[in-house]
UniProtKB/TrEMBL annotation:
Residues 623-940 form the ERAP1-like C-terminal domain. Residues 1-21 form the signal peptide. This is Aminopeptidase N. CDD domains: M1_APN-Q_like. Belongs to the peptidase M1 family. It is found in: Cell membrane; Membrane. Its EC number is 3.4.11.2. Residues 318-542 form the Peptidase M1 membrane alanine aminopeptidase domain. Its cofactor is Zn(2+). Pfam families: ERAP1_C, Peptidase_M1, Peptidase_M1_N. The keyword tRNA processing does not apply. Zn(2+) binds at residues 390, 394, 413. It comes from the Eukaryota.
Length: 1113
């Protein structure tokens, strides 16, 4: 009878599902994160809930964990507290039984739930969260567990569509302290919304296969079973899953047994152990044809397994290796054993989030868990590692101890976003993730938090829409930054022990941020850590106020002290702000003038705008750096003299500063210049040293800032000088790394090569362009060997460069590869063409369904053409002139997003006028779009930037153009002995240092011209073997503001004039004074590897100061 009754329900629901379209697969459409990342600033999609702030810049990683549901998920206006459960009944134990029917035409799930509850406040109303469930009201029972007596249910109130609740009214009040059991049967639908208990599909051997999987965070457990769906209402869960006997299932806990399903041939029940106490959003189900691939048991004492498609077994190796090792590390770090007997990780084809930390069964979007060694880039492996570490850290922060409400989501996500770096660094030290923190998290979130429309980390939220809006850069990246700052000012070891105290104190329960501060305070007190206020008082200023300060350091060079002030850093200030908050913080100050000494520390109190530090411990001619390793959440501005000292030290020996501080210096400087707090000339001065920089973090930190200038200057007269300057600093970086990648290259070298190649080829550096063309030509001859010919790390640059510098043959090959393989990296490369006719043709192809461009890729094409400096105006004109054709071919969906795309590069009043006219001509579609509003604001900001900064930057570029040597003298070789001396000795006490290049002459000349800079040049003796001449040394250009870049040496007699072409000269320069005093008076040893000479390959070993190239005239 039970089977027959279930079948009757199924027949009815099949009809219902057909009527409502549940059987139709719907896919999430819209720009993916790769496309979004191509824009500067990143675009923000229009909100679907009417609440989200459109001006938020998306988190770099929050999108991985945020649940991006399809656009057809409706959200209705709701009242805050009215959606919360009353708290008079609390759950203790759930017994959940689910039988999902995973077949085309039948996506129903037969569900049954028993909930054992405790009565906290006497009531006759039992309110339970439920959404989109068909409740069998006749099956509902309420029983007194102590007596076994049933309590009649006299009314059933269904508010699922308005409040996501059902309410059972019982005949008699439940008594305080009483224990009751609630049971009911229901039917749910395996939806395509990627939330709740939903269905997914994939292709295997040409066959479409399906699975059922859950994703409950934040408020979707109620879509799978009636429950008390709030994080504080923790309980134990006993799960039973039905499946076909040839399939598999998984849940949070280990499988106990499997039994045949009585009356349903071919089906079985899987019974799972009762879970530990946890919140509903952490419950997980998976029913599929996946295979479970175990990890090496020697890696962890916890059973570890990856669930994946059968044909993806070979892509699980990296996750199976790194996952158990990260888990072991966290057990050691927290000094708390992992509480469950097993840990599964499942790769899901369609997943709204990038990953979800379900306790014992973590689910991932496939591309974030599965890695193919033959196609995955270095960044892909890094991404997989940090996401795995992020989710595993949640097993303690979030699962063992859960935030008490979603306003404190940052306690979960901020900690996981911090611990992912520590966990990954422990198992992949070559990644140097702790060094990468500032460029991946801190400097990025500064851009979000520097807006007046940011938000505090901790704010009140109530509705599901408000809760989902918390999964942003503030919770993730900013949360991680303030935690990292706290760890620094109390001491990392103290912090670590304080975390263990916090986790032990609140295990299997809930906590707020005050519980964390209390645990850390207790530990700090035990270890005699001295602070100017309590940890709560300090940290509340960072969690309850949005934004962050910039600290201005104005040194007193007479007394050795400094005045330090704090002020909120804003990218844009509104004139009509009514915000009453006083934006001051407890600011931990760290500073040094010598990294070999102990870091000096002080505090700027929350009630003080400024404070005088009496002694910085630095002499008047010594630099001072604040915010050591950028551990703290603020920017720093200096007085002019200190910037000059920093600039000179960078030129002399940049490694006197840490990698992080070098990255901080350039990032801070350009952002301070952006808002007119310092001159752009000061920021650009700090880039002079980059020709010697070889480390990834400082370069990656500055490239975003330089890219913006590059974009803004492209159509202006300053651009040729800009391109020359950029080439002069990028080419040495590229040359030092080289084009060819080897398997033994360190991880950061691979990432450095990505940046260096991208810019070198973009700037037209011959070696990069030629190697890219050669590689592409080889690929054209052997397309089947793509994986052997092109490194995944270099692929995008090589393809793009070949299209930029190639012809029709290269373009046609790319298009054919795209059509044959579906690899849209070839399509993206096609959009890099420099030929307007080609780009216009691509735009036209978007309107032709038979063009060969997939509908899913039309957005990618338009985005990349709009970001092509040649294609930007073409894209705007296409949008203006072909509006009706676009609408007929593609509908209206893309218009606001495409409008936003074309705005990024626009920076003239004429461009703004065209955009406003376009908006006004289509007000119905564009008039209320937040993406359009953001686009117009972007153009207005760009126009203002150009008017303020074009002239200053242009003047600086004229004064800092790299010198070009006459092609009269060619360097053959530079002394290796000189190089070794240079590498080993930073300061030469002797006033003699030999620079011994061997050179050849070209045409007859009397003058030798050698690059030199920041050298105090004195009259010296030039010995020409075979000839002797006394030379007068004088600078070519000499001003107070510009370093000397060249030195001309005139021979006193005409002997040189009589030397034949190509005769060898050996030049020894004596009497070079290397002790340089004060500004432009103190030089440092430099290494310049791999410079190309005119006519001969040289080794380019440097001399003091900027470095000597050894070319002569």
């Amino acid at each position: 009878m039970k089977t027959s009754r279930n079948l009757q329900f199924l027949i009815v629901l099949i009809a219902v599902s057909s009527a409502f379209g549940f059987g139709i697969q719907s896919n999430y459409e819209g720009p993916d994160q790769v496309e979004l990342s191509l824009l500067e600033p990143a675009i923000v999609l229009d909100p679907v809930d009417g609440i989200s702030r459109w001006w938020y810049t998306p988190s770099r990683k929050a999108h991985i964990f945020r649940h991006n549901y399809p656009k057809n998920v409706e959200t209705k206006p709701k009242q805050g507290e009215d959606l919360r459960l009353p708290g008079n009944i609390l759950p203790r134990l759930y017994n959940i039984r689910l039988l999902p029917f995973i077949e085309v035409g039948n996506w129903t799930t037969d569900g049954y739930v028993e909930i054992s509850v405790d009565c906290i406040i006497s009531t006759v109303n039992i309110s339970i969260n439920s959404l989109d469930l068909t409740i069998d009201q006749a099956s509902i029972t309420v029983t007194d567990e102590l007596t076994g007596s049933p309590i009649p249910v006299i009314n059933f109130i269904d508010e699922q569509s308005t409040r996501e609740l059902i309410t059972l009214q019982v005949a008699q009040p439940l008594t305080v302290g009483g224990r009751y059991k609630i049971t009911m049967k229901y039917i749910s639908i395996l939806n395509t919304l990627l939330t709740g208990f939903y269905r997914s599909d994939y292709e295997e051997n040409g066959e479409t296969k399906y699975l059922a999987v859950s994703d409950f965070e934040a408020t979707s457990a109620r879509r799978a079973f009636p429950c008390f769906d709030e994080p504080t209402m923790k309980a134990n869960f006993t799960v039973t899953l039905g499946r076909k006997e040839t399939w598999t299932s998984a849940s949070n806990m280990p499988l106990i047994r499997t039994e045949p399903m009585v009356g349903v041939p071919g089906f079985v029940w899987d019974y799972y152990e009762t879970s530990v106490t946890m919140s509903t959003y952490l419950v997980a189900f998976l029913v599929s044809e996946f295979v479970g691939i175990p990890s090496d048991p020697g890696l962890s004492n916890v059973e570890f397994r990856i669930w994946a498609r059968a044909d993806a077994r070979n892509l699980t190796d990296y996750a199976r290796n790194i996952g158990p090792r990260v888990l072991e590390f966290f057990e050691s770090f927290y000094a708390i054993d992992y509480p469950l007997p097993k840990q599964d990780m499942a790769a899901i084809p369609d997943f709204a989030a990038g990953a979800m930390e379900n306790w014992g069964l973590i689910t991932y979007r496939e591309q974030y868990l599965l890695t193919d060694p033959s196609t995955a880039s270095a960044r892909s492996f890094q991404f997989a590692a940090i996401i795995i570490a992020h989710e595993l850290s949640h097993q303690w922060f979030g699962n063992l101890v859960t935030m008490d409400w979603w306003n404190a989501l940052w306690l979960n996500e901020g900690f996981a976003s911090y611990m992912e770096y520590i966990g990954t660094d422990a198992v992949e030290p070559d990644f140097k993730m702790n060094d990468q923190f500032i460029i991946e998290n801190l400097q990025y979130v500064f851009g979000v938090d520097a807006l007046e429309t940011s938000r505090p980390i901790n704010i009140e939220v109530n509705t599901p829409a408000e809760i989902n809006s918390m999964f942003d850069a503030i919770s993730y990246e900013k949360g991680s930054c303030v935690i990292r700052m706290c760890a620094d000012f109390i001491g990392f070891d103290t912090f670590q022990r304080g975390l263990t105290r916090y986790l032990n104190d609140n295990a299997y329960s809930n906590a707020g941020q005050d519980n964390l501060w209390a645990a850390l305070q207790t530990q700090a007190d035990l270890e005699n850590v001295v602070l100017p206020a309590t940890i709560k008082e300090i940290m509340d200023t960072w969690t309850y106020k949005m934004g962050f300060p910039f600290i201005t350091v104005t040194r007193d060079y007479q007394t050795g002290g400094a005045l330090v002030t704090q002020e909120r850093f804003l990218l844009r200030k509104s004139n009509d702000s009514t915000d009453p908050i006083v934006y001051q913080w407890w600011v931990p100050l760290t500073y040094t003038s010598d990294y070999t000494q102990t870091t000096k520390r002080d505090w700027l109190p929350v009630d003080q705008v400024s404070k005088t530090l009496s002694n910085l411990g630095a002499s008047a001619n010594q630099w001072v750096i604040f915010n050591i390793d950028q551990q703290n959440y603020y920017r720093v501005a200096y007085d002019t003299a200190n910037y000059a000292l920093i600039r000179d030290q960078l030129m002399m020996d940049h490694q006197q500063f840490s990698d992080n501080n070098r990255g901080q210096l350039v990032d801070d400087a350009f952002n301070l210049a952006l808002v007119e707090l310092i001159p752009y000339a000061t920021a650009l001065d700090l880039t002079l040293y980059l020709k010697y920089e070889r480390d990834y973090v400082p370069w990656h930190a500055v490239l975003t800032e330089l890219n913006y200038i590059d974009t803004m200057l492209y159509n202006f007269v300053e651009f040729p000088n800009w391109k020359n300057y950029m080439t002069s600093i990028v080419e040495p970086y590229y040359t030092s790394i080289g084009f060819a990648e080897t398997q033994s290259d360190p991880h950061l070298e691979k990432l450095s090569r990505i940046d260096a190649m991208n810019w070198a080829c973009r700037l037209g550096v011959a070696d990069c362009v030629q190697n890219s063309l050669s590689t592409y030509a080889l690929l054209m001859s052997q397309p089947e060997n793509l994986l052997q010919i092109v490194s995944p790390n270099e692929k995008s640059t090589i393809l793009r460069t070949a299209i930029e510098n190639g012809g029709q043959t290269e373009y046609d090959f790319a298009f054919n590869q795209y059509k044959a393989t579906g690899d849209n990296s070839f399509l993206v490369a096609m959009c890099a063409s420099k030929q307007a006719t080609v780009l216009s043709g691509l735009l036209e192809m978007l309107l032709d369904p038979n063009s060969g461009i997939l509908r899913s890729d039309v957005n990618t094409v338009f985005n990349n053409i709009a970001n092509n400096p040649i294609g930007n105006e073409l894209a705007l004109d296409f949008l203006i002139n072909r509006w009706n054709d676009i609408q007929n071919a593609l509908g209206v969906t893309y218009f606001p997003t495409w409008y936003r795309y074309v705005c990024t590069r626009q920076n003239t009043q004429a461009g703004l006028d065209k955009l406003i006219q376009l908006r006004d001509a289509h007000l119905i579609i564009l008039g209320n779009s937040n993406s359009v509003k953001q686009g117009i604001e972007t153009v207005e900001t760009n126009i203002k930037w150009v008017s303020l900064n074009e002239g200053e930057i242009g003047t600086w570029l004229v004064a800092n153009q790299p010198a070009r040597m006459p092609k009269m003298l060619y360097e053959q070789q530079t002394s290796k002995e000189s190089d070794k001396t240079c590498n080993k000795i930073r300061y030469i006490s002797s006033n003699i240092w030999p620079f011994k290049p061997s050179v050849n002459t070209g045409p007859l000349t009397r003058t030798l011209l050698i690059h030199a800079s920041h050298l105090n040049m004195k009259l010296g003796l030039i010995i020409l073997f075979g000839l002797v001449a006394i030379a007068a040394i004088q600078p070519v250009a000499e001003t107070a503001a510009v370093p000397v870049d060249d030195v001309a040496m005139e021979a006193e007699d005409s002997a040189i004039d009589m030397m034949p072409d190509e005769s060898a000269l050996k030049i020894i320069m004596h009497k070079l004074e290397h002790w340089l005093k004060k500004c432009y008076k103190k030089g440092g040893c430099r290494e310049d590897y791999g410079h190309h000479s005119y006519g001969h390959q040289s080794y380019g070993y440097g001399s003091y100061g900027h470095g000597g190239y050894g070319y002569g005239k």
